[in-house]
Amino acid sequence: MTERIRIGISSCLLGNKVRHDGGHKFDSYIVNVLGRYLDFVPVCPEVECGLPTPREPMRLAGDVHSPRLMTSKTWQDKTEQMQTWADSKVRELEGQGLCGFIFKRGSPSSGMERVKVYPFTDPREVKNVGAPVLKGSGLFARTFMEHFPLLPVEEEGRLNDPVLRENFIERLFVVRRWYDLLESGMAPGAVVEFHTRHKLLLLAHSTQKYREMGRLVAAVREYSPEQFRTEYRRLLMEALSVRATAGRHANVQQHIMGYFRRQLTTDEKQELVEIIDRYRNGLVPLIVPVTMLNHYVRKYGDEYLAGQYYLNPHPVELKLRNHI
């Protein structure tokens, strides 16, 4: 890649004291680990829309599909204020070159999903306002996801799940490489190279989407540049949004193994088959078969496989494949 990965993030996760109580929610993994590879664009919807710090806490209330943003004690409606700012903010972010966004879990403005939505009952008049339902999205988060439907998004809490974490970060790196392709001018040869190098990675996610993309690339000259960019990016991100399974990973690994069928000894073949089966059955993490395959790629100097992002989708220092 030619540049670092630039993503939006809820400001409090960086340690900025913008929470309603004047505090923060510093996340050491995001800042100290991912921060070695990412540049952050901090966003605090409450502060940026004009609310003070500290301030009265807020909650979502009413219809889960179109909730109101209410202060939790004095019951002031801040919906229009927040929505007007959010609509303006996403247009501003169009020029930031974002590859994704990390939201603050549970926030009535920035929660991606499962945000509490309370019954529309004034707490000053009714002592028990009723139990909330975990079906909402924060107003800014919802606006962002609707405006940038193809960008990878996650919450800091969900990044504790190794599978979700690896998939999110993998997509960030793909988006950055896609931006590099756009900036290069997207010559047909460069498009074919991009698609070819992502082949095995895409197959680990969705064979169907990969085939659709292959047909699109084969007919690239039949589309206007804008049509091709739009359709290819849509298919690319839809494919990577499909969670890669152990079974599909194992199928890709067996496909790679086929490139060495003439070089490997009988014992080496048997060992590799056993390791792939152990991974498929959950006995070893993904890094184990991938490390062995990388060894054979280096040993036998296969140029095609050496260029496959499947074998090195992100820096090994992140240890993302050590836990899935």
From TrEMBL:
Protein name, as recorded: DUF1722 domain-containing protein
Annotated organism of origin: Oleidesulfovibrio alaskensis (strain ATCC BAA-1058 / DSM 17464 / G20)
Domain annotation DUF1722: ranges: 199-315
PANTHER family per record: INNER MEMBRANE PROTEIN (PTHR30087)
Pfam family for this entry, one: 2-thiour_desulf
